[in-house]
Amino acid sequence: MRIAILSNVNLDLLLQLQAKKKEVFETQGYGQWIHYALTESEALIDFAPDCIFVILDGFALLEECRFKEDGFAEIDRAMGYITSLAKRYTNSFLAISTIDIPVRRIAPSNCPPIEDTWSYYWNDKLDRITLAMNHVHRFDLMQSIRNFGRVNYYSEKMWYMGSIPYSMKGLQKLSEQIDDHLDHLFMNRKKVLVLDLDNTLWGGVLGEEGSQGITLGTSLLGAVYRDAQKRIKELKELGVLLAVVSKNNMDEVDALFQQNTQMVLDKSDFIAIYANWDDKPTNLKQLAQELNLGLDSFVFLDDNEVEREMVKRTLPMVEVVEFPKDVANLPATIREIYKKYFWQRAVTNEDRIKTKQYQEEALRKNDLKSAVSLDEYLLSLNMNIRIGEVLDDQVERVIQLIGKTNQFNTCTLRFDLHEFQSYKDRGNSVYAVSVSDKYGDSGLISVIMINRGGESATIDNFLMSCRVMGRQIENAILEAIENKIYDEGIKKLYASYIPSGRNKPVEELWDRLGFKLTQILDNGTRQYVKRIEDHPNLSLIKAYWNA
Length: 547
Fold this sequence. Notes:
By secondary structure, the protein is of the alpha/beta class. It contains 23 helices and 18 strands.
């Protein structure tokens, strides 16, 4: 991991802490962040940081400003520098700090401090930049300082002795926050939160207390469970799939959702509810099969220690969360679950409708059961498959798909934003595929990466969301790709299958699509070639290029 830390104050001690764990860019003196923003630095470009942190001390930034308008003008100038920096380093993530400004000037009590006004003005401007530029992130230094306490975070002695605004404890906290930010930025995000019901979503046992007797409400212990449901609902709105595995009677669970007005979560918030008396590992395996997801994408929350231990022993790939000993900490536990397993920088359109997409998939599966033939079923879906070069507003989703797709992934190349941009800068093509049908819009579901050379091209990677597997969409995608590159004068198409242990579903993909196996390497990699004019890929369904 390579990082750069730019600042308007002396953070040499922070750089030393970070250099113990990762490669850190050596800046030419402290306080030079504006120089790097306005001048093309060959050293920084050659270093190619994965992430550039811009950590600004609010007091130092605005120390000479006496009036509100002066501060606004200085902030506007600083934001211009940040925009310039972001435009220079599009191949790196940029983490820009919020600013905290302790009140140090002496003023009468009837004169409201302007420091908070400046902080919020800065943060509002920063949010606008992060919305406009996918590679720019908010690094919430202000909230970290306020949570830790200004008295603990700052040191006036360190400031006067070495232009270091923070205490050693503050620097250690800041170093940990950088580590956490990087962990989140490059984490392998989980997909499903599986929940118990009794004493997890509410207090008490439904079968004994009844739908109106459980502990759930707006005060005392009932408010704990209600607040936990609010946090869980927020996870769902971020694209986390919610499911229930509980030892209960389904008719009683249905009645509770219909009758208890204190429930924040609705039955429609869940992609599946397994309320029965089977053991939980069995239900979890069945759920994974139903969703066509690996168990390693599951996070399991249950108040019962025996149930948790059974899942840990039987299904070690499932992340099992320790239930808080004090149930008052349950909402905080949900927040920690988000940070540890589901954190994301931004929400894509696909995230917002993910639960709906899985519910629509259940309808498709019911249709398939009653269809006379697979061909009849596929044609009845009225699929609309669209292909095009990746657009700027699709990059976030493409990076997300590249990072988390495991089953339908021919080579399992993992690209972060820097690597993705570098791949495109070398003249390669990245195509995004979106699908909709009579049940709804599945969104951006596939990415195919191609490099060209003379009369041949190579598919560097082909991946597709497991949600749409089984609909022959890959056939249509490849046919459209082959037609396009053939028209460009390309006669041969190369491809590979690199086994990952999790991409077994595409082991024979290239064989099925008319490619000829040319070599099997010692690591199991299979290499293929196809003469496009000799092997037309006639697909039952068609894909179309965006205009």
